[in-house]
Every structure is written in C-alpha cells, then in structure tokens.
Amino acid sequence: MSWGLHQFGKTYDAWPKGPDGEPEEPAFLVSCSPLDMAADMTRSMLEAYGIPSVERYPGDGAFGKVVIGMSGSGVDIYVPKSALADAQELLKGEPEHDELQEGV
Question: How far apart are CA 9 and CA 104, in angstroms?
C-alpha cells in the first residue's frame, strides 16, 4: 500500500526507505478534529523538525474533503514508523532539558 505517498513528491522523497527501496511503513500518530486547524499545525510542526507525515481521512472523510473542503470525520496523521517516538515527544510540547526553562 502506498498510502498516497506517490502523490506527494516532496513527502515521498523525504519519507525513509527500507533496504529494498520501498517506503517505510506509516505509523498512526494522532487523530485531529475537522473543526480546527490542528492537523495543519501538527503537520507544519512535524515538517519543521524534518518528520514527514501523511493524512488519511477515516470513513467517508475524503469525499467530504473534496466536496465541502473539510472532512466531517476528522483527519488521522501518520508518520514513518522510525520517527513515531520523536513525533510523539514533539506533540507533548515539553522541553527535554531543564536548562531550556531557565529564565522563563
């Protein structure tokens, strides 16, 4: 399954490949509401940290995205399996080191 990676040249190029040259398996990261910009902000943050991501629309969400511009069932974000732990840490939003909090 290509997960639509072939449609997104930049994402496909950034997605880690296995020894056989095939894209690494995607891992579920988070499900976002269709009513806010959480999915766009999450994907932008991941991209800023060099973590590629793809969106999947559960149920009939892809149809809603095409027809009305948003998925009524939300959007699921997937990242490469090897980047899942890093992506989860980014979503926590907590600094890793105490010295980052000094002077705040």
Answer: 41
Place of tokens 């995205």: 65
Q: pLDDT for 18-68, tens place per residue?
A: 999 999 999 999 998 877 788 889 999 999 999 999 988 876 655 555 555
CA distance 71 to 14: 26
The predicted-structure confidence for 70-93, as pLDDT tens digits, reads as follows 556 788 999 999 999 999 999 997
What whole-number distance in Å separates Cα of residue 2 and Cα of residue 12?
Answer: 10
Which residue in this structure is represented by tokens 């290509």?
2
DSSP of the chain: --TTGGG-HHHHHHS-B-TTSPBPPEEEEEEE-TTSSHHHHHHHHHHHTT---EEE-TTTHHHHHHHHSS-TT-EEEEEEGGGHHHHHHHHHT--SSGGGTTT-
Domain boundaries, the chain: 5-17+24-93
